[in-house]
Amino acid sequence: MASSAKKEETDLFDLLKDLAKNWQIMLPCLILSGVVGVFVAMWIRPIYQVDALLQIESKNNKGMASAMMGSLGSLFASSSPAETEIELIKSRQIIGDAVDKMRLLYVATPTRKLQRLLHKEGRMELNQLEIPWDNLPEEERGGAWTAVANDSLSFELYDHNNKKVMSNCHAGETYRIPYAGDTATFSVLKMDIKKGQRFSLYKMNRLDAIDAFKSAFDIKEKGKKTGILEFSYQDIYPDRATEILNEIANAYLRQNVERSNAEAQKTLEFLEKQLPEVKAQMDSAMLRFNSYRNRVGSVDINAETRLVLERRNKLQQDLLNLQQKKQDAIRLFQPEHPTIKTYEEQEATIKRELAHNTSESKKLPATQQEVLKLNNEVDLTKIMYTTMLNNIQQLKLVSAGEVGTVRIIDYAEQVRKPTKPKKKIILCVALFLGFLFGAALVSIKSKFSNGVRDPNFIEKETGFSVYAKIPKGNPNGTKGTRPLAVVEPDDVAVESLRALRSSLEFSMDEGCRPIIGVSGLIPGVGKSFISVNLAALFAGLGKKVLLIDADLRKGRLHKEFGIKRGNGLSQLLMRNAELADVIHSTEVENLFVMPCGNVPSNPSELLGSKHYTELISNLEKEYDMIIIDTPPIMLVTDATLACRYASQLVMVIEYNKHSIDAIKDGMAQLLKGNGDAHASIVINKYEHSHSDGYGYKYGKY
């Protein structure tokens, strides 16, 4: 696990380093994304959010109203959980009413792009926009009209075909315009405009307006099962947002009260409708009773008849009350419920007693029976009428005192600070996306790049060892006329060259020719830098070293050591100079240099000549080590000819610049004339990663 974590850390470090190296890609991406982020943050209109708090109460039978209703109270008991109320509030009935009342169907949108960017668009709210679209061709229906401000008080009105319809229009006035064979109605509720500002005017479909409202409206319960609902609404105008949200709260409150009163109102309407009929029955019964008494005269009702009559009245009153209780219970329970069964048994008992009372009354004289019957009808209708009047009064009091199950705790208040856009967040997101885009480009560039960087991969694919990884350092091999290895022996590049020197020494078998050929894959890889300092390091071991510049076309070692180019290897091979004239001592003890000389007309022939073979054989006897700096192997055949007697061949490549195929071809070309030589690779300008263990610089040990 530790190894995996370390590898992930290394990969991240390498990635960041790679991104820093490709700053030419990353910086424009970050700048561009930052500009886009600022533009987006400025382009988005400020959004203001207001909120309100409502409480949902469980409504139980309570107070004076419940006491007055008595048995009718159970009809109106209700309880609405918050989840149910939230869905009711989101219904089209409540939201649609608010959309209609706040005129959200009519939209006036500013159209000036620059003014929007500077947040100086102006404002216009429509009160009405009715256009007879049915009289127009179908392809023209639903187009937006345009209002163009003349000044802060008036504007001109254009239709969807950009044809002027009205001039010098003002807010607060309703205009009825003859249009398309009918009348177009238009009015502006209020506006805040400046000269030249334009507005696109149109009327939304009601369902679309409700959906648009829902996208800006939110409601949720604060806490769990608290019954406290938080309303919130977002709009580009804070005062309009406040008005709209308060209208929603009030509309919901009104409908909640109306919903709570609905059943009581229905019952009240039914009772008031039946009351005249019951009163007529009572008047008719009293009229028949009085008419009979006037006809037969006064009838003395004895004690027995009076008891029968009182008993009948009481039983009828009890039966009426019991039937009312039974009807109330049926609304709450199933017919099989014990309460319903009990009421049915009590009702049957009272009916049996009434039947017995009726049989007793039949034993009385006929006159008393008729008086008893008429008197009973009068008393029964009086009881019904009185009971109905009492119930009506109770229902009216309950309805008047009904407050619903909703209480507004906090109304919405206008805010000054917009909640959107979050400019800092937008800018950060834009920069992050720009960073990702830049990283993707760098990744794509690296993926399609032909350069190889991994020494292990090079060794695996070519079969040749990588003897050294020389980090970036001084582009020249010398400082002044002295090699870097002498001037700055602790330099990180010199340390790598020491490793190269050691590897070459170990690779040189006893008795092999002490000749090292150094070539590069292409120009500019730093082969001369390596040749000069490698020669200085071998000289530092006390060996007599000769550095030969075999690049007869563009040799530059004479510049490194401050030597004139005139006499050199080319003059020696053309027999225009003596050996002593072309070998120069340097400021480094035991290090001698043979420059390339003037450019000949036939460098390949000179290096392939017999005279070159004799020269190398003679020099081999005089010097302990000979290092030959050759031209790039991929351009000319000079390197192959110059290195054909070397026992060690070193090909210099540049980090992350060459494909593996090019490296293979270069090594094959270099070994053509000297297949027995030991070949190795040196990576110059190497960029050390954290995974190399040493970092970019070693420091002093």
Reconstruct the topology from this structure.
Layout: H1 2-21, H2 23-43, E1 48-56, H3 63-69, H4 82-89, H5 92-101, E2 106-110, H6 113-117, E3 123-130, E4 145-149, E5 155-158, E6 164-169, E7 174-179, E8 182-192, E9 198-203, H7 206-216, E10 217-221, E11 228-235, H8 238-296, H9 303-332, H10 338-361, H11 366-400, E12 406-410, H12 423-448, H13 455-462, E13 466-471, E14 478-479, E15 482-483, H14 484-487, H15 492-507, E16 515-520, H16 527-540, E17 545-549, H17 557-561, H18 569-573, H19 579-582, E18 584-585, E19 591-594, H20 603-607, H21 610-622, E20 625-629, H22 638-642, E21 648-654, H23 660-670, E22 678-686
Parallel strand pairs: 13-22, 16-20, 16-21, 17-19, 17-20, 21-22
Antiparallel strand pairs: 1-11, 1-12, 2-9, 3-8, 4-5, 4-9, 5-6, 7-8, 10-11, 14-15, 18-19
Helix pairs in contact: 2-12, 3-11, 5-7, 5-8, 8-11, 9-10, 9-11, 15-16
What portion of residues belong to β-strands? Answer: 15-25%
- The number of distinct structural domains comes to 4
- How far apart, in Å, are the first and last alpha carbons? 32 Å
- Rounded to the nearest angstrom, the radius of gyration is 54 Å
Number of strands: 22
Helix coverage percent of residues?
40-55%
Mean pLDDT: 82
The CATH superfamily of the largest domain appears as: P-loop containing nucleotide triphosphate hydrolases
Low-confidence stretches: 60-80, 690-701
The CATH C-level name of the largest domain is Alpha Beta
SSE-based structural type: alpha/beta
What is the 3D shape?
A: elongated
CATH topology term of the largest domain: Rossmann fold
- So, CATH architecture of the largest domain? 3-Layer(aba) Sandwich
- Major β-sheet profile: 8 strands, mixed
Please give the order of strands in the largest beta sheet: 13-22-21-16-20-17-19-18
Number of helices: 23
